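In this supplementary section we document a worked example of the pipeline. Step one takes a protein sequence of length 757 as its only input; no multiple sequence alignment statistics are reported here. Step two produces a three-dimensional model, which step three serialises into structure tokens for compact storage. The input and output of this example are shown verbatim.
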Amino acid sequence: MFPQALRTRCFFRSFSHRRATFCLVRPPPRMVKYRAYRKNRTRPRRESFSLPGLIGEEPFLANELFGLFGSHLFDDRVMRERLPLSVYESLREIRDEGKPWNPEVADIVADAMQAWAMEQGATHYIHWFSPMTGTGSGKHDSFIDGVKQGEPILNFSGKMLAKGESDASSFPSGGLRATFEARGYTAWDPTSPAFVLGTTLYIPTAFCAYTGEALDQKTPVLRSMQALNKQALRVLRALGDTETVSVQPTVGAEQEYFLVDKDLFDRRLDLKVCGHTLLGAKPPKGQELEDHYYGSINERVREFMRELDEELWRLGVPAKTEHNEVAPGQYELASVFATANIACDHNQIMMELMRKVALRHNFACLLHEKPFAGVNGSGKHNNWSIVTNTGKNLLNPTDKPEENPVFLVTLCAVLTAVDKYADLLRLSASCPGNEERLGGNEAPPAVVSIFLGNALTHMLQELAEGHALQKEERGALLTGVKSLPLLKLDDSDRNRTSHFAFTGNKFEFRMVGASQSIGLANAVTNAIVADVLHDFADKLEGADDVSAVVREIVAETWHAHGRIIFNGNGYSDAWVEEAERRGLPNIRSMVDAIPALTTEKAVKLYESFGVFTRAELESRAEVEYEAYGKMINIEARTMIDMASKQIIPAVIKYTTQLAGSLGAVKAACPEADTSVQAELLTETSDLLSDMKVALAALIDITEEAACVDGAETQARVYHEKVVPAMAALRTPADKLEMIVDKDLWPFPSYGDLIFEV
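The serialised model returned by step three reads:
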């Protein structure tokens, strides 16, 4: 809420009033205002963020929470109310039709946006962006622009809305900017709505260097969306569609996470510094009984989820599904589909609020891909599709997919793109934490494949080989209980081991890590599909027989890229061997994945469609190598600290007590059998010795790695030498945890962390 001085009276400077004018700023009660609006309005609800099945077209609130939806969002509804029609239409055309930026609207929008934000209690604004670190960033600026006669002058111009300046030297640039070259710019993204969080107006922006290179996660997404739109429209026009104005990728992200008690979290240095555990014995129970996924959610967690929903809905983030995940203490939150750039913003908001709301309930929210070794890790499923401005999903097979040329061409484009650029997709899901998750029988292996299901696979094969398609009629699923409804059998089952799985009218990219921005994954997906659609459009445009060309595209795709289709168990060793026979790449580590960024194939792809320049790609490779090396260095030093300052002293104390007990028993009763105590003392002492040797080795190799020159060379040393040395230290440490008295062990166990929620 505004300070008293601002609530009572202030000077307001706007583009339309060049002199300071006196006004009152009295934020009305938000719920009262919102209800009044709903009661009196006659126009239909906004289409952008509807909640089908929850709120109907009638002005009826299911409950208080739904009434909050979008109340802190400067969205289509607010813009229609507060902007002149011409300005609103200009913004709508930019957002929905890909029209160029119109600088003439900036002042008008800024004026309306500031007034609205102040009504929500905002005193500051921020140009909010996602740098290559993946976290949301920005600099808070006050609306106050001076003082006149002891009263604040408020100013927020179109120039201030459209462009900001940030210290680019504070973020990794991979050599694009020298340390002394600090200037960087943020540019307002009018396709993503602004919002108020706390007392700050958040303005979604792109972030670029002084010389124009992209330094963020959003700019490549926006560029790739332009490329995909252009090539998809070419294909649609060639197939006879004259109505579609724009085509946009839509995305729905499923966010997995862990909740642990904050008091227990604070007692573990590895969790506080690294976001995941570096040491710890596997608990007696994990996800073995598979009883957590559909288990009840305890009241404390449910309260956290309720408050998180409330916070997200205020910001127009349509959080839809929340439930337990496979492991104890693990959960998932999914959002409704939005255009790719807005979905990226939604996921960043979601991660930020999950951490903040968790603290209010004395939880720590863990977004690391593998918080606990031997326990199911956390991913982020990126559900991707392509939709026209008229609402047509290009990946909707309809009842007769074999007779749907738009679907066939789009499907073939995805198959070709994923096979051709599997290395770039693998890279987009690379981060240090995801290395521990991928391939662990809980996430897809490192070999990228596509699941289509038997029905679509059979259809493509028959069409490619020129056979008449014999579609199998699916009957009803008989449960054996007369009172239950008959369930129609789907054409295909689902496959949870697939990397890129077709799930009815979208593809689910399941490799992305829980802590990652979804920006790169979507920039890559958009760009590679645009590349293939470009080739298909070249074939289709001007063709005498379009249907024949579509059949040709299907046949060529099947014979050249059908190898990417795999409908079996991706966790099996047999598939890894089969993938090798098919010639599919198996990129096991992040360090091995990074070179894909700078291949001539990648440079040609990205420069052709204006997604990345060669310099931007080289810089991002440098940033990835540096990020990997820095993270492993931090983890190694944290492990050294915990081992030397916590575990070894605790074990020495335990062995001392054990030796004292052994001596006391022998003294009190010489004939007593003390072999168990003796064996335990010997075993503990041997493990302590092993741990001391491993610790010394880790210290030496970590210091050696820190002195290596060159980001790539250093990253490989960390991967090939430091990581194995950390594993060697962990082995005796985890064995000791199973022996040493729990009261003496210096930090909470896995069982404490995942079951005391």
